[in-house]
Here is the input.
Amino acid sequence: MLLGACSGPQSALDPAGREASEVALLFWVMLVGAAIIWLVVIGAAMFGGKWQKQPLSERAGLRIVLYGGAVIPTIVLAALLVFGLRLMPMLRAGEPELRITMSGEQYWWRVTYAAPDGSKVESANELRLPAGRAAEITLDSVDVIHSFWIPSLAGKMDMIPGRTNRLVLHPERTGIYRGVCAEFCGRSHAFMAFPVVVMEPAAFEAWLAREAAPALSKADNGAFLANGCGGCHTVRGTQATGSIGPDLTHFADRQSIGAGILPNTPDNRRRFIAETETLKPGVRMPSFGALPPAELGAIAAYLGSLE
Ligand code: CUA
Here is the structure.
């Protein structure tokens, strides 16, 4: 059980980026430092209690208090402070090569990429990053305080309404990691997660170009529009232009649905539409379980065609 947290897609001790490597290093330095201090203190206590027969002279006692209680702790704590300060991200400069805005909403993530031509590309509930490049994530919130945390890539940072926070990530290893909301934000706080896909830079460029394009689906979106889905969701290139909920333009390309809670499969797409409020208590989208099965199936099929 203890070692279960040491690896996997959501472990701060199995870093896949520069910032997370520094967090892991700080953890190990602190752990080893604390272990040494613990051994010395326990050793001294045992020595004093069991083996020291003669009382110490006043001079020797004072020296132990002075060195053990003031000089050594000052040196050790100052060294750890300098080491920790050096790792603070805001003390380092550097131009990011990619700018992304992530906005927390109850209980999902609005993700906006700045495309190379200066235009904005909106997506949701999944973050894609190129390996080996610096990405600046601008963090904010529209409702309550959320917190953005990808343990494999960096430390956490709060998303606060009315305030903009900035986090620079340097992912180094390709793979799929897991990001979570790390601040209690309501009933579905635990269901507010997102996959993080770190790709080769060329694959990322190709993906971003595809993501920027309007939906290519030729599937029938009659049921989707007739039931009002387009009032809250955008599918670029169609009549669906709502902006209250997540953008669904290239929905079928995403790893998960419902902000990281279910794998993006045909069964789960149907289930999420029918049981939204059961799967995500407190979410603003109502459950559409009362729709005739054919309508439900048609909406789920349309979403599955949005590549
Ligand atoms: Cu958002 Cu917890």
The chain has a mean pLDDT of 89.
